[in-house]
Design a protein that fits this description.
Blueprint lengths: L3 H4 L9 H20 L9 H16 L9 E8 L2 E9 L1 H22 L7 H17 L6 H19 L6 H32 L4 H8 L7 H18 L9 H7 L2 H26 L4 H26 L7 H23 L7 H26 L13 H4 L1 H15 L5 H16 L3 H25 L14 H5 L17 H19 L2 H6 L6
Antiparallel strand pairs: 1-2
Helix pairs in contact: 2-3, 2-5, 3-4, 3-5, 4-5, 4-11, 4-14, 4-20, 5-6, 6-7, 6-11, 7-9, 7-10, 8-11, 9-11, 10-11, 10-13, 11-13, 11-14, 12-13, 12-18, 13-14, 13-17, 13-18, 14-16, 14-17, 14-20, 16-17, 16-18, 16-20, 17-18
Length: about 525
């Protein structure tokens, strides 16, 4: 006999601890570091960085048992079986978690040997907290968990951008980042409330079913909810016209934080965008498909044209150029998502593959920028001229990273990623978008190749050493400006980050099918 308790939803269920282990481990170590920072003497603060690196390595190792992609927890259980789940560690989630945790690990390596006087305990706590939210988001399968994960990843990032307390640019960047993000989140929450009002559920798989049969009187409300929900994720991806915070934020933030935002922050936005469009809103593909196609074209064009302007004078910031390049790359990443509205969700694999390639080479470029900034804090484009004469291996690595971003040999992995994205647009019948992308790739060649050529030009004549600027002196004697052509020893962790990203990029350029096969996903 079936009892009343058997026929109703059960609130008691077991938790798959293995499935949630990666973000849980990172979050737990973050809390331990926050407490330990209160008791550790200053000379032992580096232990906090080592603990952070160990936590990220452990989280990556815990992804190995999940490679079968068949782990779900926090599900709606009934007397007849299992319904929708709030957390699913499938193949898509695994790929994005590898990306965000690997990106956070490389950011930790960039930060560990940094000579800037940053509050160690706060920095490592905020970095791990943001990484925990970023690792949670791709496995989230309801809108509530998605929003919470997005904010857990974003809120510590605001503080990381403004962590240089005595730097006015850092404070301004953090404020701009915070205010624009809060507005985007408010709009997204309004959209989520509209979607919930029309469907009565927040689970992505159930939303797909119920939105297909929305009553006519609620159709307009549902479409508005879908559009507003996408705004929040479009902001995180730095898609135009929600990109305006990127240049000032990247320039004002510490370089490792800018690298983190360019890769992990962007991955969070794209994974959330993929989940809500392909899983939750497929019945409204006629709404978000054309919109994302237009946004993709606008984003890549705005990013490349603005990046092109940075090369007009050598006094422009290299980090600002990387920021605009990041906006342009976001446009390419949007193309397969828009294409999925016209064909199948298999197009999403192109976005994932491109994101993996971009993460490796962009973090490598930021690692080289961090190395250059140790002797030239302004990090101007002119500071890279003749880098081959003083640091030949670093110049070769930077040239390789830039060629990968441009999609030129020997950066074969970048070329394959762009071809895959281009093919997704053609297969979906978006010929006009493929043409726009081709034009933008040509535009991008100019500033990538100009920067690459500067690395191998004859260095400029040495200028007489001048006193360190006040900003450098405020950061301590280690940041004093060095005479041109007198490189200082790089920290082991920074050297390891450059070497690791270069090695991975070379391997993937030799066998690009590795990343393409690994990134192949099917969300249904």
């Amino acid at each position: 006999m079936i009892t009343a308790a058997d026929s109703t939803t059960s609130l008691v269920q077991s938790v798959d601890w293995l499935a949630i282990a990666p973000p849980v481990v990172v979050a737990t170590v973050a809390l331990i570091i926050l407490v330990a920072d209160l008791f550790l003497p200053e000379e032992r603060k580096p232990l906090l960085g080592l603990a952070s690196i160990a936590a990220l390595v452990a989280a990556l190792a815990l992804l190995i048992p999940l490679r079968d992609g068949n782990h779900s927890t926090f599900c709606l259980t009934t007397g007849t079986g299992t319904g929708a789940c709030s957390y699913t560690a499938d193949h898509f989630a695994l790929i994005i978690q590898v990306l965000v945790l690997g990106g956070a690990l490389l950011t930790a390596l960039l930060s560990f040997g940094d000579t800037r006087r940053l509050p160690a305990g706060e920095f490592w706590f905020l970095l791990l907290s943001s990484a925990a939210g970023a690792a949670l988001l791709p496995a989230a399968r309801d809108l509530a968990t998605l929003v919470v994960a997005l904010e857990v990843a974003s809120l510590p990032a605001f503080a990381l951008v403004g962590i240089k307390r005595d730097d006015r640019r850092s404070s301004e960047a953090a404020l701009k980042f915070f205010l624009s993000s809060v507005v985007a989140t408010a709009v997204m929450l309004l959209g989520v409330s509209f979607v919930y009002a029309t469907t009565g559920t927040l689970h992505l798989t159930e939303l797909a079913t119920r939105l297909h049969d929305v009553p006519d009187q609620f159709a307009t409300l549902a479409k508005a909810g879908v559009a507003l929900t996408l705004v929040g994720f479009a902001f995180k991806t730095a898609a135009a016209p929600f990109h305006f915070w990127v240049p000032d934020t990247y320039v004002g933030a510490p370089l490792p934080v800018a690298a983190y935002l360019s890769v992990v922050g962007k991955s969070v936005g794209f994974s959330g965008l993929i989940l809500v469009t392909v899983i939750a809103f497929p019945s409204y593909a006629d709404v978000w498909g054309p919109a994302l196609a237009v946004v993709a074209a606008l984003t890549m064009t705005v990013g490349n044209v603005a990046a092109l302007r940075q090369t007009a004078t050598r006094a422009r910031s290299a980090v600002r150029l990387l920021a605009w390049s990041s906006v342009a790359q976001a446009g390419y990443l949007l193309v397969p998502i828009a294409s999925a509205a016209y064909s199948s969700d298999e197009q999403i694999g192109s976005t994932v593959a491109y994101a993996l390639m971009y993460a490796v080479v962009n973090l490598g470029a930021f690692a080289v920028a961090a190395l250059v900034a140790r002797t030239k804090p302004d990090n101007r484009l002119s500071d890279y001229r003749g880098l081959y004469a003083t640091r030949p291996l670093t110049a070769l690595a930077m040239g390789f990273f830039l060629l990968c971003l441009a999609g030129l040999p020997p950066g074969i992995v970048g070329l394959f990623a762009k071809v895959t994205v281009f093919s997704s647009a053609v297969d979906a019948g978006l010929g006009w978008l493929a043409v726009v992308m081709a034009v933008n790739v040509v535009i991008a060649l100019y500033y990538y190749l100009q920067w690459t050529a500067a690395l191998f030009r004859a260095p400029e004549e040495a200028e007489p050493a001048s006193p360190a600027p006040a900003a450098a002196l405020a950061d301590g004697p280690a940041m004093a400006v060095q005479p041109l052509g007198a490189p200082v020893a790089a920290p082991v962790s920074l050297t390891a980050a450059i070497a690791l990203t270069a090695a991975v990029g070379i391997v993937l350029s030799g066998a690009p099918q590795i990343v393409l096969r690994f990134a192949a996903v099917n969300l249904f």
